[in-house]
């Protein structure tokens, strides 16, 4: 892409001739002033694009994600698509509910609500805290990572001393030749078979220990009641139970 910077239209000639640019997902709005790069007039830029993807699990797993894409489709292609956009959308809804104007620190778009004057703040710490607790990480989140190469080029069509001519163009090339996909996938600690095996093993061990304890207790109770009964029976028949005599030697 060849971008025209129009340096002759700058009010102050001492201001640098620059543009802001950012590469982002088509479903997400990005502020190029904070998330992009500064491109200077008279330079050639190459943007090498890579991607990071995270696949999380919903409740009851620890990642506790929210399927924003499913809700987005359910709402006919409207609504937030990640956690940060959800927080901004929550701030917009709370300000609208309180009949407040939308200040410059609430950047969710598009909306048709009344904007505040520059410098007015309506979002409170309470609203930010409530929205942060309400919104969850996205189950599927993609982020682009860009590496830029900057090279100054010479314009052969410009005469010597014509600075505006040299700064009038910015060349931007987006390349996928060094594309790297980094994927982070959250998986359950135990699959269904492993979970049943794990629970079955503990249950088997617990039941085995308890059966041994039950049999041991039953034997003790049986002997406890059997010995007096046997002794009474022997007394009735005139036979005393025989006792073993042990000789003790004293040294």
Classification by helices and strands:
alpha/beta
Distance between the termini: 112 Å
How many strand segments? 7
Give the % helix.
25-40%
Q: Which series of helices and strands comes N to C?
A: EEHEEHHHEHEEH
- Quickly count the helices: 6
Task: Indicate the mean pLDDT.
Answer: 82
Shape: elongated
Over the alpha carbons, how many angstroms does the gyration radius reach?
A: 39 Å
Low-confidence stretches: 243-251
Description of the molecule:
- Helices cover 34% and strands 20% of the residues.
- By secondary structure, the protein is of the alpha/beta class.
- Helix 3 (83-97) packs across helix 4 (125-134).
- It starts with a strand and ends in a 15-residue tail after the last helix.
SSE inventory with pairings:
Layout: E1 2-4, E2 18-21, H1 32-35, E3 37-40, E4 43-55, H2 68-74, H3 83-97, H4 125-134, E5 140-152, H5 163-166, E6 169-175, E7 181-185, H6 192-236
Parallel strand pairs: 4-6, 4-7
Antiparallel strand pairs: 1-6, 2-3, 4-5
Helix pairs in contact: 3-4
């Amino acid at each position: 892409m060849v971008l025209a910077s129009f340096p002759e239209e700058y009010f102050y000639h001492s201001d640098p001739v620059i543009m802001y640019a950012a590469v982002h997902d088509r479903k997400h709005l990005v502020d190029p002033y904070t998330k992009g790069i500064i491109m200077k007039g008279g330079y050639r830029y190459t943007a090498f694009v890579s991607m990071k993807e995270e696949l999380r699990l919903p409740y009851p797993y620890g990642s506790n994600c929210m399927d924003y894409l499913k809700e987005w489709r359910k709402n006919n292609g409207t609504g937030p698509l990640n956690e940060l956009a959800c927080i901004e959308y929550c701030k917009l809804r709370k300000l609208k509910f309180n009949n407040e104007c939308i200040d410059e620190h609430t950047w969710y778009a598009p909306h048709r609500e009344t904007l505040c004057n520059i410098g007015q703040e309506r979002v409170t710490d309470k609203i930010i805290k409530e929205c942060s607790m309400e919104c969850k990480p996205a189950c599927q989140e993609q982020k682009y990572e860009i590496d830029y190469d900057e090279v100054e080029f010479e314009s052969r069509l410009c005469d010597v001393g014509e600075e505006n001519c040299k700064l009038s163009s910015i060349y931007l090339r987006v390349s996928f030749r060094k594309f790297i996909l980094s994927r982070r996938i959250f998986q359950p600690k135990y699959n269904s078979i492993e979970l049943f095996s794990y629970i079955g093993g503990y249950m088997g061990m617990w039941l085995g220990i308890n059966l041994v304890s039950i049999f041991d207790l039953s034997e003790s109770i049986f002997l406890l009641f059997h010995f007096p009964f046997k002794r009474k029976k022997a007394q009735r028949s005139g036979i005393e139970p025989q006792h073993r005599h042990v000789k003790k030697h004293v040294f």
